Amino acid sequence: ARLWMAVVAVLTAVGAVSLWLARGQDADLALGLVALLGASLMTARSMLGPAGAAPVTPADPWSLPVLAHRISDGVLQFDGRLQLRSWNRAAAGMLVLDQASAGSHLEDLLGVSLSQLPITGDARHAPMTAAGLEVVLHPDASGVTVVLHDPRASRDADRLGRELRATIEELLQARRTVDLQRSELVRAATVDPLTGVASRTAIIARLDLEIAETRRYQHGAAVVLLDVDGFAQLNGQFGIALGDAVLREVALRVRLRVRAADSLGRSGSDGFLAVLPHTDEEGAAILAEALRRRVAQRPMRLGDVEAAVTVSAGVAVIRPGDEVDRDGLLARADEALENARRGGGDRIVMDTTRPPESLDAHRPAGAGSPSDPDEAPTANEA
Length: 382
Prior knowledge:
Elements: H1 2-23, H2 27-48, E1 74-79, E2 84-87, H3 89-95, H4 106-110, E3 124-128, E4 133-139, E5 143-149, H5 151-190, H6 200-217, E6 221-228, H7 231-238, H8 240-255, E7 263-266, E8 271-277, H9 281-296, E9 300-302, E10 305-307, E11 311-318, H10 326-342, E12 348-350, H11 359-362
Parallel strand pairs: 11-12
Antiparallel strand pairs: 1-2, 1-5, 3-4, 4-5, 6-8, 6-11, 7-8, 9-10
């Protein structure tokens, strides 16, 4: 019928052209004939359809939605004869399916008989003990949809989750252990184990920093060297253990008196060094005297022994604009300390000299520093 109508349209177009040729060049007639020709051509096109148009293929009724390929459960579709038509990725992994599996019977594929898996009525549930899978059937008018669940996957996920949490906890515990060990190493390097104040290395580093600050910002600072009077005699009379107890008690009393901005550390076997930032001569003298009184205010009871312990102090000050190095400053403080000792002890002595530019300009040629911070204590130092 389509072909016949196309032939009619072609003949109509040919007739119209012939009529135009026979009746001359009238414009109205020509316009009508052109319209007739166009209508004829459109009629023919609509009958024959667009050239090269591909036939429409109906959608595959057995294709699974995209979401079915994203779930962890297996999904299989069987037709009315219980032959496999489609499946998702999870089912392919569970049952090792490929293109050759299409058309497989439900009983053969799942390894169970129909008596074990009834497929009439509502959805049925039956475990597949042999394969270790749980099976749920959903029958409908076109066939059966089977959903497979692997309980081992859930158990494995739980086990892996527990193992992961245990591993994370082990890593966190190892990190805490490393941090604790690092803190202990830092403390061992910066804290004197006998007295609990800063180690000699740490207090010297603090002094170097303070000297640099005074040069940069042009402010004053001071240092106080404290030594226990007659410490060697205490050791000889009562033993090293009592001498250590004296050092701990002196450190405690002094530490409770220094200001929050000050720093206190060991300077030697029987002495301490206090670094006092932003402190002039008057302030340093007041604080040094307070430290001396704090130690001497009452006797120290050390077990069965009661001892009257005193300290001597030497004070040196950095004035704004002074160019002094650490060794020169400590040499001046040590010289003042020696003067306090020679005066009978239990006193403070201020360094009244102008600071030399360096230790070499202060001490005699060939003489060593009397308070070299790098010299190790010879007794009662942990």
